[in-house]
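Data deposition worksheet. Section B asks for the primary sequence of the deposited chain exactly as it was used as input, without tags or linkers unless they were present during the calculation. Section C holds the resulting structure in token form. Section D is free text for depositor observations; keep each observation to a single sentence. Incomplete worksheets are returned to the depositor.
Section A, Depositor: J.P.
Section B:
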Amino acid sequence: VIVGPKTQSHYEYKAMIIASSPTAILVGSQTAGTNGNITKLDLPGKATLTFTSLGVYYPDRGQTQRRGLRIDHIIERDRATLLTGYDDVLDSAIKLAAIR
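Section C:
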């Protein structure tokens, strides 16, 4: 499963579910850490306060909010690689899948 900073909320949860499979591998970089239910509270003056009202944890009680998912193979992308158009994350994921 390829993840990164744009992996947020519901997709982090889906990645966690897939990652629970013994053959799954999370590849990429840190996710947003923005999963969990949200609650909106209307305040005076037409203001609204939005906050997380339900936490999401790993079975060992490890927290995911503000931390993101546990990545099996971290691939840090750099500017030079991005400018070439080469997708090092996808290439790494394909190589890792071939090994499995």
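Section D:
The two ends are 13 Å apart (CA to CA).
The longest strand covers residues 38-43.
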